[in-house]
Amino acid sequence: MENMGISMQRSRHYKQQFQIIAVCIVLVLGFVIVSWNTQLRPQLPVHVKLIAALGTNFPVLLIVTSDASFLFWINYLRIKFNQLNNLLHVMVTTTIDSPSDKEIPKLINDFEEETPGQEGVRIVNGNANTMKAVKEIHLQLVKIARIVNDFYGMQLLLTMSTTFVFLTVLLFCAYITIFAGLTIEHFQNQLIMLFVWILFNLSKLFTLSHVCIKTSTEASDTGELVCQLYEPSTSKEFRAEIRDFSLQMVQNPLVFTACGFFYLDESFVQGVIGTISTYLVILIQVSEVNLPEKIVGNTTVPTNVIQMM
User: Fold this and answer.
1) Are 272 and 205 a contacting pair, CB within 8 Å?
2) Which of 266, 92, 288 has the alpha carbon at shortest distance from 175?
3) CA 158 to chain centre
4) Cα–Cα dist 283/137, whole Å
5) For the segment 183-210, what is each residue's pLDDT rounded down to a tens digit?
6) pTM score
């Protein structure tokens, strides 16, 4: 990619890593502060509260670190696919004013003759060597993405499974808290903590899915750009490389899975939202069966709800 004039942008990626680390630290500190203020008794010694707050949120640190590592590498691959697509965009010159068949006589040197590190290298449709190099780079990026996906597969499965369970339980607990007739102080403490955990799990669900979807989309967009370059006016070698590239795209699609149990795509997000809504409705209906009721404050709630609280 460097020989083709594509910038590796190492400084940008280093900066992104530091930003991700900073976000993880802020997120964990936020959980510690919320636990300190809402879950621990004020009369406890400071060192005891600190140890308890850090200890109870240590799993959050592990989860956030591992998820952030996966997100960084997948986003890194998305950027590389995007750079490759931008290179193909330069080759696609099918505009009304300058159709590609008129641009073919303006061929310039192959990418091997370009100076390394040159920005915005001009690559034209008839360059079979360039198309071959792009095809090989795309295949290697897909293989790397699969290796990363396999490495983090079990983690993704556990993360998505626990996120689904936590969101269902947390939303149901929020429903109970709202209608339980608690005191204002207790109500605020419970609701704040529930809101933080719900927001954390929702953001994790949508962020992981979004990055995987964007990366898969960038990889598949390459096929559309390659098809636009196939024209009778180009050389036989160039058209042969495009046919091989198209076949490679069909045989090696980029999809992200959680150990092969489900795909991380748009249908997964829709399915999770629908399933959580279904289970939440069932739990609410079960909690409101005609059982003996008790009065809590001015609110009437079922006895089984009080026992759960």
Assistant:
1) yes
2) 288
3) 15
4) 50
5) 777 777 778 878 888 988 898 899 999 9
6) 0.74
